[in-house]
Every structure is written in C-alpha cells, then in structure tokens.
Design goal:
alpha+beta; four-stranded antiparallel beta sheet; three-stranded antiparallel beta sheet; 4 helices; 28% strand
C-alpha cells in the first residue's frame, strides 16, 4: 500500500521546514501517514494509484447494464470485453463487441446474459483505471488529519481503582467528521432506483 502524502506534505501543512523536526517526530509522522492513508484507502475503496491493462470479472446479469465496481473507477479506458466460462482450469472466451460504456456502467442490448450459458459465466474486462496522481483534496485530508493526530495527547485514557474512575479524555485516533465529509465524493454510495409503472 502506498502512502497518500509525503513527510514534506505534512511539514507544508504545518508551515514548518522539514529539517526542523526531530527524529522522533519524523517517525511518528511516518506512522500517522501510513495509518491514515490505510484508513482512507479502506473508506474510499480505491488506492488512488493508476492501474493499466488489468483484468477483472463481473457476474452476468439479466439486465442491459453492468455496474463497474467502485474500486475500478475512474475508468480511463476499456480495452476488451468478453464472456468467460471457467470450467476447471480452462477458460472459454467469447469476445463481446456490442457494448457501450457510460457513467460507470457497461451497456449492452438485449442483456449481459450470454446465449451459451455455461457452468460459471462471467463478463471479463481488460481496462485502465485509477489516478495518475493522488487528488489534491485527498492529499489535503491526509495531511490535515496527520496534524490533528499529532496534537492529540496519547497515553492513558482512564484509570479505575475500586469504585473510583478518572477519565483523561479521548485518545482514539479516527478521522474527523470534516475529513470524512470531504471523502464522500470518492466513496461508493447507495443509489435509489426510479420505478416506472406501466
């Protein structure tokens, strides 16, 4: 997993020169960058890297459109589409040319169900997708979250002796609500379907 920002990005966010940090601070910032990058990659369902000429398989549908999974977006180019039937170690491939790609969907008329339905039919895709550079707003979220985590006081959250308990405040490291809000455009959202009665 690649980190979404560098140490220098965090220093710029704080308005400090990278040489002003102690070795301990550098190690701490590096650990925070890695943790926050992992959280954001998990939330968004993408690693914000560019993937070229990769293959994936989708389930066939009795529908005219197939949704490209969120982790394969943004789609830059679809190189090839085919029906695949995996039987044992052998893959039977039938090329598909009558498709259209529009807004994250592969469209085909009449349906995405192959005429020769085998044991394990799939739709195979070879495509280019992802980001050539990590988007600036993602970089800003990671850097600002690292800075926020740095100012939180680590250590003991509470102590309890018998019936006496003392709380020292929250020490949990999670994304802020504003950070999560900025990630919404990169997350897979449930969409409502329009139902038409005939």
């Amino acid at each position: 997993m690649a980190n979404l920002v560098s140490f220098e990005d965090v220093a710029a966010q704080q308005g400090r020169d990278p040489s002003d940090y102690s070795e301990q601070e550098k190690v701490q910032i590096g650990a925070f960058i890695e943790a926050i990058s992992g959280i954001i990659i998990s939330i968004c369902g993408t690693d914000f890297q560019f993937h070229e000429n990769e293959t994936t398989y989708l389930d066939v549908e009795w529908d005219t459109n197939l949704v490209i999974p969120h982790g394969y977006r943004p789609v830059k180019r679809i190189r090839e589409v085919w029906f695949s039937d995996l039987t044992g170690d052998e893959e039977k491939v039938t090329p598909v040319s009558d498709w259209t790609f529009l807004r994250g969907h592969l469209w085909r008329n009449p349906t995405w169900m192959p005429s020769n339905l085998g044991h394990n039919p799939k739709v195979g895709l070879r495509l280019d997708y992802g980001y050539k550079e990590v988007p600036e707003d993602i970089r800003a979220v990671v850097a600002s979250e690292v800075v926020r985590w740095m100012v939180q006081t680590p250590g003991i959250k509470s102590e309890k002796v018998g019936d006496l308990e003392v709380n020292y405040g929250s020490t949990s490291n999670a994304l802020s609500s504003s950070g999560r809000s900025l990630l919404k455009k990169y997350t897979d959202r449930f969409r409502s379907a329009k139902v038409v009665r005939w």
